[in-house]
Design brief:
Layout lengths: L1 H19 L3 H23 L23 H31 L4 H8 L1
Length: 113
């Protein structure tokens, strides 16, 4: 239960940053927080109390004692994709800063027209 609350809290903080903040870097950090919260939620949904990670080892050879590996695989894929999205967004922010000289969304919007 604590994992669900933590995930939803992280997602809420990310949504707050996107809606309220006007700095592009803070907006990107908000997007990353949302992604992190969703990843935590997916892993929390896949977790079953009393079971172990789906890794075969000497002590654990019974597959019925392991959790489902699909949520963990989805989360790992999401982390990799999220890292590339974050790098691409940071590159766009650097280009915008070089062109407009500011990271404030309001000023960039006003310079466009």
């Amino acid at each position: 239960m604590i994992f669900y609350v933590s995930a939803l809290l992280i997602i809420g903080i990310g949504i707050y940053a996107i809606i309220i903040k006007k700095n592009l870097m803070k907006i990107i950090i908000g997007l990353d927080l949302i992604e992190t919260g969703i990843n935590l939620l997916i892993v929390s949904i896949g977790y079953i109390n009393g079971k172990t990670a789906p890794i075969f080892s000497e002590g654990v050879m019974d597959a019925s004692r392991m959790v489902d590996s699909v949520p963990q695989a989805l989360t790992l894929t999401s982390i990799v994709i999220g890292a590339s999205e974050l790098a691409l967004a940071a590159a766009f922010v650097v280009l915008l800063y070089r062109k407009y000289g500011t990271l404030d969304v309001r000023k960039i919007r006003s310079l466009r027209w």
